[in-house]
């Protein structure tokens, strides 16, 4: 691994997650990071995406070769919560944007309960007061209990993050 991969990275940079860390990319979106997910681990494909973006985005991968060649963040764990911890420990600050859609990366927008009548299961509608929706794909989000069990909620609290919504799936 080169020296740049071992140092801290600027958290104002967005991320590109390759095929090896798709689940991680979706969780980082929910935490408010701008993440492009590339469903490939082919060196030429990833290199093309990394080098042709107009805005600076840092590669996150489990591929030692890709991380080394493209000065990305190498993730070692197979556990998504541990992967989040690995990435967050390598960026310089906790600054991030609003929660994003786990599917399309658009920023989520707060919506009223009246706006989602019939769009979520009844027990979800009755159990939660705050919801967000994706203006691009229409997916609806709430702070689901499954999120807490996966460890992301606890990680967010210990890292002084404010996790605003869970995802609906």
3D architecture notes:
With 169 residues, the protein is α/β, with parallel strands linked by helices. The protein has two domains: 3-90; 109-158, no CATH class. It is 34% helix and 13% strand. It has helices spanning 3-6, 22-30, 43-52, 64-69, 80-90, 122-127, 145-149, 152-158, and strands at 14-17, 35-37, 57-61, 73-74, 109-111, 131-133, 140-141. Mean pLDDT is 80; it is low at 1-7 and 156-169.
Short account of what is shown:
With 169 residues, the chain is an alpha/beta fold. The chain contains 8 helices and 7 strands; from the N terminus they run H-E-H-E-H-E-H-E-H-E-H-E-E-H-H. Helix 4 (64-69) links the parallel strand 3 and strand 4.
Question: How are the SSEs ordered, and which strands pair?
Answer:
Layout: H1 3-6, E1 14-17, H2 22-30, E2 35-37, H3 43-52, E3 57-61, H4 64-69, E4 73-74, H5 80-90, E5 109-111, H6 122-127, E6 131-133, E7 140-141, H7 145-149, H8 152-158
Parallel strand pairs: 1-2, 1-3, 3-4
Antiparallel strand pairs: 5-6, 6-7
Helix pairs in contact: 2-5
